Amino acid sequence: MLSTILSAMAALASALTSVFAIALAYYTFQHTLRAAVRPVLVFTLTPDLIWQVQNVGTGPAITVTIGDKWLGQDWGTVVTCHAMAPQAVKLLPWIHEGAEIAAVYSDIFNQFHTTRCVKGRNETLRGNRFGNWTPKRTEWELEVVRDPELLLYTEKDLRGKTPFQLDVMRNEFYARKGYRFRRADLAEYFSQLPWYKPTTSDQVEVNRKLSHEERQTALFILYFQDRNNLRSK
Question: What is the spatial distance between Cα 85 and Cα 92, in angstroms, rounded to a whole number?
């Protein structure tokens, strides 16, 4: 009788061990699979001082919502954006200012992730940390220039210019705010002008000093260059 009980207990223990092993294997497999297809969005400034977001993860970001604000204030712009494949990059031309940018996005398992960027530093977090967000806009390019009265140059002013001349026109706004250029040709060009006084390499600081008209005009020149294949760098 005792031997029968011991055999039954041994069989039960073996069965429990097998179940535990299967459960652990399944959990490990699911964890590995999720990690293998996890999106990770990061925010950076381009050399043209335009904010962009890139998916540096290994999986697509299915739903993407991006917001920006000044610290201590409400989120001024919350935009629902298109899905982003791994390594995809997208300009965020509507983000002109703001000490904080954030993105909430989901993976293929409908698990949410959050990226916060405060003063240029990215932090990735699990879950949706901004559940009370109410998107106010639904397209990427809402801030592409629409009002000609905001422009300091028109398309007529840009026609016939070389790629470098257009680069100079676009970057003069930043030069006048004291930006120290990394591009050798721009640094050399502006160094010959008596008014150019480079004081900082901080892209965020310089971008913050631009007026709305200057930002819109710089973007307008950039889009003109891209549309006409007139980028020199």
Answer: 16
